[in-house]
Every structure is written in structure tokens, then in C-alpha cells.
Write a structure and sequence with these properties.
heterodimer; A: about 325 residues; alpha/beta; Rossmann fold; six-stranded parallel sheet; two-stranded antiparallel ribbon; 11 helices; 8 strands; globular; B: about 325 residues; 2 domains; 14 strands
């Protein structure tokens, strides 16, 4: 199959940006600059890039606790994202909350929650408001992980999505593990099939193939937009990085990680480009540009100040 | 002036704000078609505003809370009704971790207009899971307001403020108050949060009473005055967060005695909080130890023979306050 070169280069640039962002955060973590939980999604880049390219600027998004890629793709500046990671006042949330709760009203990123599953009922509320306020044509893309689908409010929300007919596309980033527990130890039913019990149209895709993610999510996003009802897309992927930046992977083998590295979404898009005749120089140029953006964002974050306590924070 | 019930006052507040702003909606169980609210607060509103404004839900408090947070994030002004305040436990995560923290976590990018109406308190044998006053459980959480109207006038004025406040509010109502009447003007008015009210002036002791316990305090004060010549000053804080510590402290400066009367459980209760604030700042004003009068640390029972022992009533208040004058 022949792909549009410019589209493939866009995929590459965006996925490489997300990858390099995560690597920079990891570098900061190793230097002791990252406090608390920081969840990296190395290997999952296609799931955010392929889906969010189908959103309009005025569409809404809710991210996961492993949401850096989603948040960058929705449009938050790399500088503000990077500064937030290490708790600097120039961060998008003024450095108050760090990795897990990036919210950016200017790009309709409505928040990310650290309580797994908490975003499902909130997503229903957002969808309800889109309907009630007659914002027709807009949709919410609500990301969640495989682990959250064993929370009760996942099922509650699928039911509400059906009876209230809300324009929400639920996107599952299924990276196989909820922290260190494999999905197969937690549930016998595939995630996209769970939606079908509630008459929610759903599909499943190779989450490491950005072209497939892009095409399948476009199809469902178009349906949600035109029909004003919910859908669910499950993306099967794998995080090469640990659960958190400090993870030592006690729950999986090196061999397993190596197998998944062979399915790396960035390498796969590079192969497609090369097969279509794109020069290695062109690919290198894209990467060089991104490296510069990340380097600059890292410096911006490092040079920024830590936030100061202000009595108005007391509530 | 006309008198209306607490229920009617709440309904007027909701209706007036719904007429002003189509972003004001109600979400809850049994609030629209059929029952129109188990305590009748939303009576007639479904017929007037329709199913897109008065939104009935399945029995799923978690989703009601999520729908409230989500619509508020989108700039709407949802008023949620928990059928009984006890049911808020089902959606505690939404209260504690999402609603309360959204403003701080987003560095003020989002502030939620979100009111959760909570019918609480013992109401003729409703038992352990339908009778609790839970205010003190929530007082420790930064980021939510706690409002406790004790009469129809306050109910209307406070609810109107809360609907437009831009911060999440737990609005605690009381079953025994819904049918009580008080004077409520026809004209528009609102009541700010954090402003208490002197219900009865007195010179011997300050009795801070919350929600329905204001009525119990009034009855006890009358008896204490008539039979024992003790002149009680009753302060209704009206909101617990923010708390009008000034009105309480000013009263204590005059009376030199303080008791706190609440239907919440005694341990870790409202009295503990108010008492400690007064102790920290004004201990030298006190002539005797502070008295906390609250529900005993017992799940609220069903029969009156037990609730009369567990929940403060007039006789217990009279007895406990007399003890403060025994020395």
C-alpha cells in the first residue's frame, strides 16, 4: 500500500516528539529532578498521535495518568509541558501538580486524573454538556487504560453513554499491564467487547501501527461526530518504559520487552517511509528539528523557578 | 411578609436561577418525572423546564457526581441531588479527588459551579443509612464549601449564592426542616457564605447550633430562660466552610461560655473544630470548659426510644448547659 509521504512524515515527527519528550523526562528523573509519580509511555506513541490528529482544535480531550503524549498532541506547548514535569512555575499548571494532572483550558484539554477510572463519569458529563449547549459537531476524546476497565464506573458510564447518547469517543490505550498485573489476570473479556454489551460501537486496532490507529479512529470519530453517540476504540500496545520512571520491571521478562521493541511504532513508520522512497536525510532532518525543540524545552524548564506558596491557595 | 416552607424556598431558588441562566440544570434520581424529588423540592420543575434541564438518572451516584463535574467543566451550573445525604459515600472520590481539587490542580484554569444538595439528618425512623449528618467528614477537605441552612430564608438566599459561586458546594439540608416555614421576601436576595447569624441574643452562654439543631436550641433556650434563669445566645453559623469565627468569638467575648450543638457524630465533629479555634485564640475569655453536644458515636438507630438517646434533643441540651453553670 502506498502512503502519502507528507502524512507519514507528520506521524514520524509527532511520534518522535513524544518519544524524545519522555526520554528527557526520564533523564530528569535520573537526575532527581522529578518528584513523585511520573508515568512514561515510551512505545505507546502511535496511540496518541494517530487518534488526536482526527480531532479539531475545539474538540475536547481527557487524558490518562500516562498522558504526556495525549497532552502534547492536543496542543499544549512543549515548554509548558516540560516545566510542569519538574514542578516549575512556568508549567501549564504552574508547576503545582506535575506529570499526572496536566490540564490546558486553551486547547480544551479538560484534565487528567490520577484516580484510575475517575474520568469515565466526568466524560459522560462533558458529553452531556456538549449536547445541552448545542455544541454540535464537537466531540470528546476520552483516553483510558486497560486497568481502568475493571472499575465499576467504567460499566456505569458505558450505560450512561448509551442511554444519554453522548458524543464521546473512548480510546483505550491497552498496554497489557495495570502497573505490574497483566490484563489476562484481571479479566477474561476483551475490552472492545465490553462496550458491545451496552450497544456502544467499538473496534480494536494495532496500537503500534500509527496508520491503522489513524484510520480506525477517524472512522469512529466521524461516526461520533455525525451521529452524536459514543464509540470505543481499543488500541493494543505496550509500554517499553516502566510503569513509573523508577520501575525495575519485576513483573515481565527482558525477552518480552525485546519482542515488543521489534514492533516499535516509530521504526515501523520509518520503514514505511523508506519503502516509499523517502531519503534517510529527510528522516534525519525531521528528528534533528525535534531534538532541538526538546533540548530547548529542557533548558526552559531547568531555568524556570519553582513556584512559591501563596496564601490564596488555601481553600 | 409571606411565609413559605424550606422546600418551597429551595425550589424558588432553583427556579429563579434556571430562568436566568440556561446553564443551570438539575441532575439526580427521581427528581423529574414521577416523584419530583423524594422530599418534593423539584416539584413542578420538570413540567416547566423539561427533561434537558431536570435530568433523571439511573441509580448511580458515582455517575451523577461525574455528570456534575463534567458539565461544570464545560461551564454549566449543575445542581445535583443526592436522594439522601448518606448516598454521597458512593461518589466520595468525585467529591474528594476531582471536584475539590480541580481548581487547584488546574492552577485556576477551571473553577466549578457545582452544588450537591444533600438531604440529611434523622427523619422519623429512617435508620442507620438514611439519617446521618455528615458535615464533619467533609470539613477537612480543602476546595469545597459546606453550607447548612436552618430555615427557609437562609435556604433560598444561600442556594442562590451557591449556584453561581464558581466553587463546589456541599449543600446540607435537613429532613425535619423541609416543611418548616419562615418569612421569605418576594424580592431577589442572596446571602454570602461565611456570615453567621445571631438567632437569639443572650448574655450568659454562646450556643452555636447547626442546621435543624437551631430549632432544638431555640426550644432549649426558652426553657433555660424560664426555669433556670440562664440567658442563651444562639449563633447559627449558616456555613461551616467558610466559618464565621468572628461572630462566634464576639459572642463568646460577651458570654464567656461556649457550647456547640450539632446532629453530626461527636467524635471529630463540628464542635471539635469550633471549640479548638476558640481555645487557640480566646481561651482566656472562657469561664468554664467548652461543651460539645452532638450525636453519640453510634449509627443512627430506627426507633425513637433509641434516637432520643443518640441525637441531641431539648432535654439533653438543657441538662448539659445547666451543668456548665453548676460550679
Amino acid at each position: 500500500m502506498k502512503y502519502d509521504e507528507q502524512l507519514l512524515l507528520t506521524f514520524l515527527e509527532k511520534m518522535y516528539l513524544v518519544r524524545r519528550f519522555e526520554q528527557k523526562v526520564y533523564e530528569f528523573a535520573e537526575k532527581g529532578l522529578v518528584f513523585g509519580s511520573t508515568h512514561l509511555g515510551v512505545g505507546e506513541e502511535a496511540t496518541s498521535v494517530g487518534t488526536i490528529m482526527n480531532l479539531n482544535k475545539d474538540d475536547y480531550m481527557i487524558a490518562t495518568h500516562r498522558g504526556h503524549g495525549q497532552e502534547l498532541m492536543k496542543g499544549t506547548s512543549v515548554n509548558q509541558m516540560m516545566a510542569e514535569m519538574i514542578g516549575k512555575e512556568t508549567g501549564i499548571c504552574k508547576g503545582r501538580v506535575g506529570s499526572m494532572h496536566v490540564t490546558d483550558r486553551a486547547v480544551n484539554n479538560l484534565s487528567a486524573q490520577g484516580i484510575i477510572g475517575a474520568t469515565f463519569p466526568i466524560s459522560i458529563g462533558v458529553g452531556l454538556a456538549i449536547k445541552l449547549k448545542n455544541l454540535s459537531g464537537r466531540i470528546l476524546m476520552s483516553f483510558f487504560g486497560d486497568g481502568s476497565t475493571n472499575q465499576g464506573n467504567f460499566y456505569e458510564s458505558l450505560n450512561f453513554a448509551d442511554i444519554w447518547k453522548v458524543p464521546v469517543l473512548f480510546v483505550c490505550v491497552n498496554n497489557l499491564y495495570g502497573m505490574g498485573t497483566h490484563y489476562c489476570r484481571t479479566c477474561n473479556i476483551e475490552i472492545y467487547k465490553k462496550a458491545q454489551f451496552f450497544n456502544i460501537k467499538s473496534d480494536v486496532a494495532d496500537g503500534n501501527d500509527v496508520v491503522e490507529v489513524y484510520e480506525k479512529s477517524r472512522e469512529l470519530a466521524d461516526m461520533v461526530r455525525s451521529q452524536g453517540r459514543a464509540a470505543l476504540l481499543e488500541l493494543k500496545t505496550y509500554r517499553i518504559s516502566g510503569h513509573s520512571a523508577f520501575d525495575k520491571h519485576p513483573y515481565r521478562t527482558k525477552e518480552e520487552i525485546e519482542e515488543w521493541k521489534k514492533l516499535d511504532p516509530i521504526a515501523r513508520v520509518e520503514e514505511k517511509l523508506k519503502a516509499s522512497g523517502t531519503s534517510t536525510q529527510k528522516i534525519a532532518d525531521v528528528k534533528k528539528k525535534v531534538d532541538g525543540i526538546i533540548e530547548q524545552a529542557g533548558n526552559f524548564a531547568l531555568e524556570s523557578k519553582y513556584p512559591e506558596f501563596d496564601a490564596s491557595m488555601e481553600q | 411578609m409571606r411565609e413559605i416552607t424550606y422546600s418551597e424556598a429551595l425550589r424558588e431558588a432553583i427556579r429563579e436561577e434556571m430562568l436566568k441562566d440556561k446553564n443551570v440544570i438539575m441532575i439526580g434520581e427521581e427528581i423529574g418525572q414521577g416523584y419530583a424529588g423524594v422530599f418534593g423540592v423539584s416539584k413542578g420543575l420538570y413540567d416547566e423546564f423539561g427533561p434537558d434541564r431536570i435530568i433523571d438518572t439511573p441509580i448511580a451516584e458515582n455517575s451523577i457526581m461525574g455528570a456534575g463535574i463534567g458539565t461544570a467543566l464545560m461551564g454549566m451550573k449543575p445542581i445535583l441531588e443526592m436522594m439522601f445525604s448518606d448516598f454521597i459515600s458512593v461518589c466520595f472520590d468525585g467529591v474528594l479527588n476531582q471536584a475539590a481539587k480541580m481548581k487547584f490542580m488546574s492552577a485556576d484554569q477551571y473553577s466549578l459551579n457545582l452544588v450537591v444538595r444533600l438531604p440529611g439528618g434523622e427523619g422519623a425512623g429512617t435508620g442507620p443509612q438514611h439519617s446521618q449528618c455528615l458535615e464533619s467528614l467533609f470539613m477537612t477537605i480543602p476546595g469545597i464549601k459546606i453550607v447548612n441552612p436552618s430555615n427557609a430564608y437562609d435556604a433560598k438566599g444561600l442556594l442562590k449564592t451557591c449556584i453561581n459561586l464558581g466553587e463546589p458546594v456541599l449543600f446540607f439540608e435537613h429532613k425535619k426542616l423541609y416543611k418548616t416555614k419562615s418569612e421569605v421576601p418576594e424580592e431577589e436576595y442572596t446571602i454570602p457564605l461565611g456570615k453567621g447569624r445571631i438567632v437569639r441574643q443572650g448574655k450568659d452562654i454562646t450556643l452555636v447550633a447547626v442546621s435543624y439543631m437551631v430549632n432544638v436550641a431555640i426550644a432549649a433556650a426558652a426553657e433555660l430562660n424560664e426555669k433556670y434563669n440562664i440567658d442563651v445566645e444562639i449563633v447559627d453559623p449558616r456555613t461551616l466552610v467558610p466559618l464565621d469565627t468572628e461572630i462566634i468569638a464576639d459572642s463568646v467575648k460577651r458570654t464567656s461560655r461556649l457550647a456547640i450543638l450539632e446532629e453530626t457524630y461527636l467524635r471529630g465533629g463540628i464542635g471539635a473544630e469550633i471549640g479548638s479555634i476558640i481555645c487557640e485564640k480566646y481561651m482566656d475569655l472562657l469561664d468554664c470548659p467548652i461543651k460539645k453536644i452532638a450525636s453519640r458515636n453510634v449509627p443512627i438507630p430506627m426507633p425513637a426510644s433509641l434516637t432520643n438517646e443518640v441525637i441531641p434533643n431539648k432535654d439533653r441540651v438543657v441538662k448539659e448547659i445547666r451543668e456548665m453553670f453548676a460550679g
